[in-house]
Each structure stands twice: as structure tokens, then as C-alpha cells.
């Protein structure tokens, strides 16, 4: 079906008063050693200042001296891998409908940017092409589950990476809340770094933090990680946490030795950690 173009703004997520208060507090924090600062990843691109998961958000994030970017991917009805977080379109596109119930030709007509700066839903292949202009940057790709397409979103993501000859790239990282997805990527692309993302509600049914896959790292949300600090470096694995948007949270990550930190505010993280500490090679 044809979908109308939305003119709503999808800008930020982070209230202006919070940004100003955070910036003011950043200057009062003590210096973070370059040996302890986590790698900075722009969550959904530079989503604190630009519409999330758009080309503009990714371009602005990639211009910063940070480790890399994070994105979510879903599958359309006709099997295209799109860069999109929600299963539904209403929040960022302003229309009713689901990603997986529409073909990409219809979805590409939507505006997920602003009225002044329209942006369309990106394909993963387009984002990977953009990354070629930034060979030092890393990308963390989260495949979204559950989905009516089942594991096909993982399979199509892998096929795209293999076609682009990126299935063994040290700059590509894969993440999922699905152990099945992590197992698939571990089997098909063992040289790619994978992260299992812990849900906060797992604290109720998975009290012993059992693992049903073999990821390279664990990815609990910051709140989860602070409540269950045993997940820091769990079983000797890397620690990736999200979404860290306050100076206090960023300082906590540095103090605790978090390896990778996803934030909507990479500019704030740079202010706290210092530009010279932001880019860390693997």
C-alpha cells in the first residue's frame, strides 16, 4: 500500500534542559585517563541532535573523533534490510503500519527526518557504503527480534556483509537480544565480534545470567549493569552498555572499566573524556 509522507520532527529524544544541565556538570568532573575511557559509540547515530537512524544522524556522528556508530535493522515484506528501530512506523514516520508488512518502495516515500531536512529510511547497504568514507570507524549492527520473518533478518544481514566482503572485518560488530541470532552469527561469521544484549527483565527469569550462546561480549543496559555488576567483564567477555546519556553515567562506565559505551550524546562524551581519548583502535 502507498503510505503518506510525514512532516513531523523526530528530533531528539533528549530534552534541551537535560542537555544544558549535563554540559554544565561535565566541566566539574575529574579527568578520565585515556587508559580507562570506554570507546564511544553513537547510538542510532548522533540521535541526541538529529533524527535517529537517518543518514544525517550517521554523517554527523561519523565526523566526530569517536569509535563508531550503532544501528538497528529490520526486514521489510519484500526482504530488504532497513535501518529502523521500532516494529511500527508511528513514532518516527508519523503513519500507521509496520515495517515488516510493507515493501521498501512504499517505505522509502516516508519522511523520518524533519520538514526542513527530510530523510528517508535507509537500507543497510547504503549505510555500509557510507562507512567506506570512514575506514577507521566501527559499526555495531543490532538485528531486531522477534519478527514475523524469524531468523531471516539475521540471514539477510549476513548475506549483505558477505557480499560486501565485510564478513571478517574487525570494524563490524553484531548484537542481538536473541541468543539464536548470536549463535547464527558465531557459526556463519566466527571472526566478527558479537554481543548478547541482556534485557532488564532477565533479572527475574535468568537470575544466574545463564548464556545460551557464545558471544564475544555482553551488552546489558546501564541500569541493568549497575544493578548486577557481576556482568562487568562477565566470564572474561567484553562489556558493551547502553544508552549512557549523563556525565555521572559516563564517569561510572570509565571507573568500572566498561569497554564500549553507546550514547545519544557523543558530543557530551567527548567533552567528558576529551577528544584525544575517544578513538581507540582494536
Structural class: alpha/beta
Low-confidence stretches: 1-18, 24-30, 276-282
The 3D shape can be described as globular
Largest sheet: 8 strands, parallel, barrel
Beta-strand content bin: 5-15%
Helix proportion of residues, in percent? 25-40%
Termini Cα gap: 45 Å
Q: How many helices does DSSP assign?
A: 11
> How many whole angstroms does the radius of gyration measure?
18 Å
Mean pLDDT: 88
Strand order of the largest sheet: 1-2-4-5-6-7-8-9
Number of strands: 9
Task: Provide the succession of SSEs.
Answer: HEHEEHHHEHEHEHEHEHEH
Write structural notes for this entry.
The chain is built from 11 helices and 9 strands. The chain has helices at about 15-25, 55-60, 90-95, 105, 125-130, 150-165, 180-190, 200-205, 220-225, 245-255, 265-275; strands at about 40, 70-75, 80-85, 140-145, 170-175, 195, 215-220, 240, 260-265. Residues about 1-20, about 25-30 and about 275-280 have low confidence and may be disordered. The longest helix is centred in the middle third of the chain and has 12 residues, at about 150-165. The radius of gyration is 18 Å and the shape is globular. With about 280 residues, it is an alpha/beta fold. An 8-stranded parallel β-barrel has the order 1-2-4-5-6-7-8-9, surrounded by 4 helices. InterPro entries: GP_PDE_dom (IPR030395), PLC-like_Pdiesterase_TIM-brl (IPR017946). This is Glycerophosphodiester phosphodiesterase. It holds the Pfam family GDPD. It comes from Corynebacterium coyleae.
Amino acid at each position: 500500500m502507498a503510505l503518506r509522507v510525514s512532516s513531523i520532527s523526530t528530533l531528539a529524544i533528549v530534552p534541551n534542559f537535560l542537555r544544558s544541565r549535563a554540559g554544565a556538570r561535565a566541566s566539574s568532573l575529574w579527568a578520565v585517563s585515556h587508559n580507562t575511557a570506554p570507546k564511544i559509540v553513537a547510538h542510532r547515530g548522533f540521535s541526541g541532535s538529529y533524527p535517529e537512524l537517518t543518514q544525517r544522524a550517521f554523517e554527523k556522528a561519523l565526523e566526530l573523533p569517536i569509535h563508531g556508530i550503532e544501528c538497528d535493522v529490520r526486514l521489510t515484506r519484500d526482504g530488504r534490510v532497513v535501518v529502523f528501530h521500532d516494529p511500527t512506523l508511528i513514532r518516527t514516520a508519523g503513519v500507521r503500519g509496520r515495517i515488516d508488512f510493507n515493501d521498501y518502495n512504499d517505505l522509502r516515500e516516508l519522511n523520518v527526518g524533519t520538514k526542513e531536512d527530510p530523510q528517508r529510511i535507509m537500507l543497510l547497504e547504503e549505510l555500509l557504503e557510507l562507512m567506506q568514507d570512514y575506514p577507521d570507524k566501527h559499526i555495531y549492527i543490532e538485528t531486531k527480534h522477534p519478527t514475523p520473518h524469524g531468523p531471516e533478518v539475521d540471514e539477510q544481514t549476513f548475506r549483505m556483509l558477505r557480499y560486501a566482503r565485510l564478513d571478517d572485518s574487525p570494524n563490524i560488530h553484531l548484537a542481538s537480544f536473541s541468543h539464536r541470532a548470536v549463535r547464527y552469527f558465531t557459526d556463519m561469521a566466527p571472526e566478527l565480534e558479537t554481543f548478547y544484549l541482556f534485557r532488564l527483565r532477565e533479572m527475574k527469569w535468568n537470575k544466574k545470567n545463564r548464556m545460551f550462546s557464545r558471544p564475544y561480549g555482553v551488552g546489558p543496559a546501564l541500569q541493568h549493569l549497575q544493578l548486577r555488576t557481576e556482568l562487568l567483564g562477565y566470564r572474561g567477555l567484553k562489556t558493551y552498555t547502553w544508552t549512557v546519556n549523563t556525565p555521572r553515567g559516563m564517569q561510572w562506565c570509565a571507573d568500572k572499566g566498561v569497554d564500549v559505551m553507546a550514547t545519544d550524546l557523543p558530543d557530551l562524551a567527548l567533552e567528558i573524556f576529551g577528544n584525544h581519548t575517544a578513538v581507540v583502535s582494536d
